[in-house]
Amino acid sequence: MGTLEGRVAIVTGGGRGVGREHALLFAREGAKVVVNDLGAAPDGAGSDVSAAQAVADEIKALGGEAVANTDSVSDWAGAERLVQTALDTFGDLHILVNNAGILRDRVLVNMSEEEFDLVVDVHLKGSFAVTSHAARYWRTQAKAGVQVDRALINTSSGSGLHGNPGQVNYAAAKAGIAAMTIVAAKELERYHVRANCIAPVARTRLTEATPGLGEVMQSTRNDAFDVWDPANISPLVAMLATENCVFSGHVFRVMGGEVGLYKGWNVVEQFESDKRWTVEELAAATSRVPARPDAEIPGSHVKSLRNN
Ligand SMILES: NC(=O)c1ccc[n+]([C@@H]2O[C@H](COP(=O)([O-])OP(=O)(O)OC[C@H]3O[C@@H](n4cnc5c(N)ncnc54)[C@H](O)[C@@H]3O)[C@@H](O)[C@H]2O)c1
């Protein structure tokens, strides 16, 4: 018996890349899957309904249950139709994975209003739109006395959590998604919903186009353990989706065999005064603060627990 037996899941952007791997693993673990994908180009342009359908067909060929949906996550009515597709087809919704995404990279000084708006629209508003419609259903169910575990899993990025130059639109949206997850975890707990967030790193068409990174990611394709394989991301997402998982409000980093736990924004040093500071006093008190934050490599200081 699979770890997601009897659960109904929506995976947005499930037609390609990381989302496709989530959809396939979910189905192998016994979930009924709504594969959503607009079939957009990497920059969000156009649509191709065959992307979602191909993954739904692949799942059915493996003996699983799946249905395709091609609505855009950032279309409010489309997001509602997506949630309704799960309810109409499979009669319930236990798991929502907000994964759909696009890129329009440009340095801040050259970025257009359209480039900023489009990326925020798909990632931040799109995650909110589908979550909002799912949450309304989950509230109705909870108020009717149904006590079933529901799991919301959002997709952030190291770009948003650490700040990647050239991606001010994407980083702002991804940081917003991490913050939104924490609010969702607090607000939706009363409806039996757990909310968590992942920041993945894997070889997909989005990262293959990144100068330098594409070649590095290709180099492990034939290794016994291909650390850049997007399928490496999905076990964490499936684990967070299982009904006996207790986690909520967490943000994880996942790449290859590494799963890291983030601990948000922390105040690491504090300067105190019994009265309001003067500008000069404050400048003197903070004079030993480094001019720039530590340029730490993410994960370089973490405690490791190895699975052998
Ligand atoms: N690949 C990485 O290393 C990496 C790193 C950090 C974050 N992410 C995030 O992971 C998620 C998946 O990215 P990926 O790398 O698999 O990229 P991908 O391009 O392979 O997959 C994204 C999918 O989302 C779909 N999509 C785009 N706009 C949509 C919309 N409005 N509605 C519905 N579907 C839409 C696309 O058609 C595509 O199939 C994204 O949120 C991305 O930002 C990926």
Which descriptors apply to this entry?
alpha/beta, Rossmann fold, eight-stranded mixed β-sheet, globular, binds nicotinamide-adenine-dinucleotide
Task: Describe the 3D structure.
With 308 residues, the protein is of the alpha/beta class. It has a single domain, classed as 3-Layer(aba) Sandwich (Rossmann fold), CATH 3.40.50.720. The protein is 40% helix and 14% strand. It is built from 10 helices and 8 strands. The protein has an 8-stranded mixed beta sheet, with helices on both faces. Strand 1, helix 1 and strand 2 form a beta-alpha-beta unit. Helix 1 runs parallel beside helix 2, helix 3 packs parallel to helix 4 and helix 4 packs parallel to helix 6. It is globular, with a radius of gyration of 21 Å. The structure holds nicotinamide-adenine-dinucleotide. The site of nicotinamide-adenine-dinucleotide has 33 residues, from helix 1, helix 4 and helix 7.
In short:
The chain is of the alpha/beta class. It contains ten helices and eight strands. It has a single domain (8-261), classed as Rossmann fold (3-Layer(aba) Sandwich).
Produce the secondary structure layout.
Blueprint (H helix, E strand, L loop, with lengths): L7 E5 L4 H12 L3 E5 L13 H12 L3 E5 L6 H15 L4 E4 L14 H31 L6 E6 L2 H6 L4 H21 L4 E8 L4 H4 L4 H6 L15 H8 L9 E5 L2 E4 L17 H7 L23
Parallel strand pairs: 1-2, 1-4, 2-3, 4-5, 5-6, 6-7
Antiparallel strand pairs: 7-8
Helix pairs in contact: 1-2, 1-9, 3-4, 4-6
